[in-house]
């Protein structure tokens, strides 16, 4: 907040969007998390909230898939929930990709990636029994598959969560074999689904979520990656902007300077030191998580996911970290 105030006073410009989407959002989330945690009667609140977050994401993805398969249902949901700033665009995109209800597009990828690492942390925790681990594996598979249909950025969480499990479990061969089996099943299912459904919505969904794995150069992900690479050339050209920002976060319906890079967005808004403060706040919450459920390697994986996702867009883990930190 201090860095935003300095930027506003220096630039004589006030952008309410950054205040609303970053500062007020984090404050409200933290206060809400405190209220929720204070009502929890569980003897192991960290475990309880970790499962609750995982269940919520699974439900959200399954519900989003149902609405994708029923376009009329999605249109009703789009009119009720503010899925994006442009509801018509969301409806249009829902023709070939699954727009997450409550967390759409890149935000869905952030959510899925964090929860995948969080679920993997529970799997390697000594307090998790075999029955719970089997359920967690099922959650990871569902979030991985359905998550890709919503946001390809989910692949970040898939890879890092698999690495976390493999390097912590003696019988990690099960995970490796399961992953290989999933890839083989996708290879087999793609032509089968194509023959059964032709150009149906379901095949379009499979194509959106998996084509970049098998044919990256001809996938939409290739174009998206190229655009992101071009955006990495958009950085401040003045020392003042680097130090305190321009106090600008959005430019109408687009982001200021038309960049998707999360690091650059925050620098343009509140400067380099403001960016460091935003990152340090989340890093502190991660490092303070209960080591019984989140060992040092799990925390490092969360940090890696945070820093990688920030490349694609502004990444905030605060809604989940607040509950786990306060529990």
Write the layout of secondary structure elements.
Layout: H1 2-11, H2 16-39, H3 45-69, H4 71-80, H5 87-93, H6 106-123, H7 130-150, H8 154-166, H9 173-197, H10 201-214, H11 220-231, H12 239-244, E1 250-251, E2 254-255, H13 262-287, H14 296-312, H15 318-326
Antiparallel strand pairs: 1-2
Task: Please tell me about this protein's structure.
This protein is mainly alpha-helical. It has helices spanning 2-11, 16-39, 45-69, 71-80, 87-93, 106-123, 130-150, 154-166, 173-197, 201-214, 220-231, 239-244, 262-287, 296-312, 318-326; strands spanning 250-251, 254-255.
Helix content: over 70%
Largest β sheet strand count, sense and barrel closure: 2 strands, antiparallel
Instruction: Please state the overall shape, judged from the principal axes of the Cα atoms.
Output: globular
Beta-strand content bin: under 5%
Number of beta strands: 2
Supply the helix-strand structural class.
mainly alpha
> What do the pLDDT scores average to?
80
In N-to-C order, the SSE pattern is: HHHHHHHHHHHHEEHHH
Q: What is the assembly state of the chains in this entry?
A: single chain
Question: Uncertain segments of ≥5 residues (pLDDT<50)?
Answer: none
Walk across the major sheet and give the strand order.
Answer: 1-2
The number of helices is 15
Radius of gyration: 20 Å
How far apart the termini lie comes to 25 Å
